């Protein structure tokens, strides 16, 4: 097995592991939701909660559902009926199908092309063996599926999988008579639709990929349908072979259009076969002209260039790279490769002294390398699509359950009022955008009029030398054609030349139109931020809408970067523009009579000029504006629908009883565990396994190492924290920590780059958490920062991060010097969210660093104001400058005793002479005994900014 086969095997081994992992996560998700159903159906309060969940999530999905009707339907039902409905809502059938597509289908390399295009020869070269018999004469062939088997076999099977014939090959070769569809077979539908299944002990197949040799298309409808079924039932990687003798034909275009229509998210790997020179040169007049123009160009390069230009012209490839650098476009000569290997077999010492085969061998080696990368990329993309679907399911459930639990401590009316204001602001912004888009209409008309005037002088001249596309075989004789269809094809190609020229001239204006969406998005976010800042002036206001807004609403206007979007793309706009131009030519074409000299430069020039003159500029501009406005209207409607869904959920929410909240506390960690596993598969497919380097730190959870193979999206170095998980409680805490960290995004909170999970022989599992590498923690940084201003700016960074967390309904619960990291620019980043919890999920347990614990934690019933108390202690140590602990605080090994004594004696940190009065005043407010009287982080941020306004602080 050579290096190529080993690399492919490694890719497919990884894919199988990911596929098996996702299948298990999918099954565990179903079991988890069944357990939730049982928990909710086991007592009356649970059933009431289930009623609420079914009602609210159904309304959130269907929008206009009448809640009273749902309640009537659920009233009187038993737990089985109720929980079945809940299960369908938590994880819909459509989502289950999307996820299970990964492990329900097998990956295969499908080689597609026209009859006698050289597909079988290419397959034989990939396999390094003449497995598939070839023929010099065109013939109708069956589908051939090749797979790995220790024992060689060849079977002819019907579409139900029943064996019709079986053959034991002695020389690893499928007989040609089995592959060809014989005349006697055509009378039997069973034999026409039969396919060849063959297994061989070949290294390439052992890597884990099947190969399917598909027949030429449009020869037999039954065979065509069989190919369509193959595309539907597998995870295909398509290699499309184009005959280097015939080049790109109209039939090739038709087949590729159908593939793209059925599998629009698939990339296609193109191979031009038979690139070696033909024995007899064609005497065609047009080819002679090409030879004169391309004396410097080899036959191989000429064939590749001509096919590549057609693929680019038809939107199947882009010309952003030179042909030699295109990873998904190759030219091969199976005949030359076979000839080279035959000579090597006869004389192993022969080494191609004249380098006659070097170009062909180099091309094949590059093809192999790119094919490996193509397969690897396609496998990972399939894995990530499945992961992202299941992650969205689990995140949605967690978000809903956490918000349900948080509703005990939140002011629902304030949130609803804030969302209503957001709805009003969105409408204002949307209406403004619609007006701005309409204003572009006159600009487009002016640009198009000017462009058309300019093009009247250049395009007709360009049309005189225009060469018709080679995918159409035009019956031109002496420069004349009589066929209406042929003349129509020529005219369409001239029109396309004109359309391309017009589009390029107005491209800048169109880009301005579509950049309006980005302006809309920025303005909308700014208005939302303003509303939240105003609402923050009222300490009683809550902010559960913030996460909902950014997770569910604003995304209506965003394009997902990981998954192909159904929104507008530049390619779709160009296609739409061409359609509009064709649809709104002012006058129909004249009827074709007699012979037309389509090869005459004068005819080409005249046709181009007529096309330019026939463009209905006002109508084209109107249709473009209409398309853009329709797109924005769709975004607007989706935004409003999502907003109303959330409002319905909030209005129906009600206050949960403690027993109901306990149910949520029980199953939320299980859902978070599944989410963590899913992220692990997704991140492993995206980044690979983190490779620890030098150990740079150790903590209670685990050790921290440099990371050798992963960097941030900005290219910055990373560290990997390796956490051994030896108990279920540790796992639950870690999963909720990771969920919380992934759902927050703030400039002063250190984000997670990726997480992976691996078996650990000693503890069960090991979790690797990759983050950006910082200079050090604040404990070690303080002694190196003599400037009070810089230390206070770091403190402000921490306060801003905590302000963000509290607005999200989260408590950090472990604020200390070691949990603040500092970068090379002395920017502060809050980290370590092991104890961070949504207020609704916090159990009130005694957690955190004892010296920073608030007195009310003794009763194990507290709010997010405990973070304010801890921040006051942090501020004391930052202002002290050396990181020392206050001497006035009683220290004791048992946290509960230490906390009780300090609370009873009302001990607080002592005053230091180096403290600024304004800083000391803020500290005292932070560690006040009354939790309700402590400042919010909105106040703290404001006070710190005022302190830093003092220019005397250095």
From TrEMBL:
GO process terms (BP): cellular response to fibroblast growth factor stimulus; negative regulation of apoptotic process; positive regulation of ERK1 and ERK2 cascade; positive regulation of fibroblast growth factor receptor signaling pathway
Annotated keywords: Cytoplasm, Kinase, Serine/threonine-protein kinase, Transferase, Tyrosine-protein kinase
Record flagged with keyword Transmembrane: no
Domain (Protein kinase): residue spans on this chain: 690-948
Entry GO terms, CC: cytoplasm
Segments for region (Disordered): 277-300
Catalysis performed (reactions): L-seryl-[protein] + ATP = O-phospho-L-seryl-[protein] + ADP + H(+); L-tyrosyl-[protein] + ATP = O-phospho-L-tyrosyl-[protein] + ADP + H(+); L-threonyl-[protein] + ATP = O-phospho-L-threonyl-[protein] + ADP + H(+)
Biased composition (Acidic residues): 278-298
Localization (cell): Cytoplasm
Short name of any one Pfam family annotated for the protein: Dynamin_N
Enzyme Commission code: 2.7.12.1
Top class in the EC scheme: transferase
Kinase among keywords: yes
One Gene Ontology molecular-function label: protein serine/threonine/tyrosine kinase activity
Protein name (record): Dual serine/threonine and tyrosine protein kinase
Organism from which the protein derives: Exaiptasia diaphana (Tropical sea anemone)
